[in-house]
Specification:
The chain is elongated and about 135 Å long. It is mainly α. The N terminus and C terminus are likely disordered. Helix content is 63%, strand content 1%.
């Protein structure tokens, strides 16, 4: 049996294994010959005959396979190297961009040293400047060796002595921007030498917005906004988050960078980032580690401005707001202004009360489709009551203080905002009301006319009295333009039976005055007043085209209700399409965008 044979004769197999070696010796391997190993002598035959040292050749030591942790760490190290290279590349690009913008700025920023130099020769002067430049670089590089406060102070003295114009720009911000959009507390943000180090993005945004009003240096504004856009993109890609970053995005949303096309407008991006960051920072909740009362008020003020911006944008776009109507701070903000020593916070609280009612109308609008006109009339009456209440509060709070033109402007501005929101609500009801109910005596028509006139009258009065009209926010030009376009649309032949001749003449007069006022306050061709002025001029021109001599002023089938197709073919040129529009705010914004994209020349020149 095989098993017995293998068990009876184990020695031949063992001897055969012992007589062989796994590998040839080093000498035989070098000669590439067969190595015959003599097991009893422990040496191979060739080494024995040649009296060589028989060194067995062992198997090469293989490098052990890396573990999962080692591979992961190697990957992380490569990621860090790539990130460092990309950071260097971004730094080089930013440095080149800065050099380009500075070279384009001309002589606005003085390049003279901060202290007078008395060197007798040009060579000595150059050596002294080079020495000072090296000193500044060494101060910036000494992160750990030089005390932080001393290093910052020395760099600030050098910087502000070299560029004193930035101090004027920041002062202009608190003179011409902050009173009308009081997002920042002057006690916390008025020191530019501290702000540039603690909040560089916010500092850049403030400089960009304030530079719009520097009439002596119009070339500065686009360059400052270029820096602001780069800072906004960098903060977004770096994942920077903080109260100052949130405020900077909100500031750019309210005072957006100039753009050549409406499609390039990015207000909604800045607004969305600011609101989302405010939610992540939990600005609507009491801070856990901040005990400074002014800082707590600063957080609350920022949150309330985000709530206002969200509500305004939702009304303009015909969408629901991002923030809930049940927000605790917004619901209980009626008395919040009493806790703050910033005098303009009272207008923020009043605006929130109006926007809360408007947001409720937007939420419940689709639940009242069958009774939309009574529902909108009720909302209009309630907003009027809220406006009257806060007007009384303004008189009581400010009555004991000396008259201030800014407070008068802000109080009338709240009435303008309320009238604009009422017009947006009434315009929606007027658009969707049954045609047979729209008569010359219809209440919805009279209220819509009154609210549109109120917006225009307040704005025109502001343009005549005081220097504050050009400093208002860009959104207010939208309010004024929407009210004017609403009235111009009522001049269509389709609605000729709704208006008296005197009313039509008054509308034409108001429209021309609005166009003249917006053209007068426009800083440049890219400013919002210039944009809306051009749109209204085109709209008025298109209206006049329908009143040529020999034309029937009221064709029976050409002008139908805007949501019903015409019964006969009509021309579809720019003039016709611009003139046939509905009365909603959403369609108004779409019309501006459509007109700009179909002109031969861009809307912004």
């Amino acid at each position: 049996m095989p098993s017995s044979n293998s068990s009876d004769n184990p020695e031949p197999q063992t001897t055969r294994k012992a007589s062989k070696r796994a590998y040839a010796c080093v000498h035989c391997k070098s000669l590439k010959v067969r190595c015959e190993f003599l097991a009893d002598q422990g040496i191979c035959k060739r080494c024995l005959e040649g009296e060589f040292e028989c060194v067995p050749r062992t198997r090469k030591k293989r490098k052990p396979a890396p573990s999962h942790e080692e591979l992961q760490e190697r990957t992380f190290e490569q990621d860090r190297q790539i990130a460092a290279l990309l950071a260097q590349w971004d730094k080089m690009r930013l440095s080149g961009r800065v050099r380009q913008l500075v070279s384009e700025s001309g002589n606005y920023f003085s390049l003279s040293p901060p202290f007078p130099l008395n060197e007798p020769t040009t060579q000595t002067h150059g050596k002294r400047r080079a020495l000072r430049r090296k000193l500044l670089q060494s101060l910036i590089s000494l992160e750990g060796e030089l005390p932080g406060l001393l290093r910052r102070r020395l760099c600030q003295d050098y910087f502000w002595g070299r560029y004193p114009q930035l101090t004027d720009i920041l002062s202009r911000y608190f003179e011409r921007v902050n009173p009308y959009f009081c997002l920042l507390d002057p006690a916390l943000y008025s020191d530019p030498s501290e702000l540039i180090w603690s909040s560089p993005f916010l500092f850049t945004a403030m400089c960009a917005v304030a530079s719009r009003y520097d009439v002596a240096h119009p070339e500065l504004s686009p360059q400052a906004y270029a820096f602001a856009r780069n800072a906004a993109a960098t903060a977004l890609t770096d994942g920077s988050i903080g109260l100052d970053v949130c405020q900077a995005y909100m500031l750019l949303a309210v005072y957006p960078p100039p753009h050549k096309r409406w499609a390039d407008e990015r207000t909604w991006v800045f607004m969305g980032i600011s609101i989302r960051m405010a939610i992540e920072l939990k600005l609507d909740q009491p801070p856990q580690s901040i005990h400074d009362t002014r800082q707590c008020l600063n957080r609350t003020r920022t949150w309330l401005h985000c709530f206002c911006g969200d509500a305004f944008y939702a009304i303009q776009q015909g969408k629901l707001p991002m923030l809930s109507l049940d927000d605790y701070l917004a619901r209980n903000s009626a008395e919040w202004y009493r806790l703050s020593d910033v005098p303009y916070d009272i207008y923020l609280c009043a605006c929130i009360r109006i926007l809360l009612r408007a947001a409720e109308w937007r939420v419940h609008r689709y639940e009242n489709e069958n009774d939309l006109v009574p529902f909108c009339l009720k909302a209009d009456a309630e907003i009027c009551a809220i406006t009257d209440f806060w007007t009384t509060v303004f008189v009581q709070v400010r009555g004991v203080q000396p008259p201030n033109s800014v407070h008068v402007f802000r109080a009338t501005n709240l009435q303008l905002v309320a009238a604009y929101i009422r017009l947006a609500i009434l315009g929606d009801a007027f658009q969707h009301a049954p045609k047979e109910t729209i008569t010359a005596d219809a209440e919805i028509l009279h209220r819509a006319l009154a609210s549109a006139r109120e917006v225009i009258d307040i704005a025109l009065e502001q343009s005549r009295v005081g220097p504050h009209f050009p400093n208002t926010m860009d959104s207010h030009w939208l309010f004024l333009s929407f009210a004017t376009a609403f009235l111009i649309n009522l001049l269509r032949p389709r609605f000729e039976h709704l208006l008296f001749s005197e009313t039509r003449q008054e509308i034409l007069r108001l429209a021309k005055e609005v166009i003249a006022a917006t053209e007068q306050v426009a800083v440049n061709a890219k400013h919002a007043p210039a944009l809306y002025s051009r749109f209204l001029s085109s709209l008025l021109k298109n209206r006049d085209a329908f009143y040529v001599e020999g034309r029937d002023p009221r064709p029976p089938d050409v002008f139908e209700w805007s949501n019903v197709a015409p019964s006969t073919p009509i021309e579809t040129g720019v003039d016709e399409l611009l003139f046939q529009r509905d009365f909603t705010l959403d369609y108004f914004l779409q019309s501006i965008n459509w007109q700009e994209s179909n002109w031969e020349q861009p809307y912004y020149m």
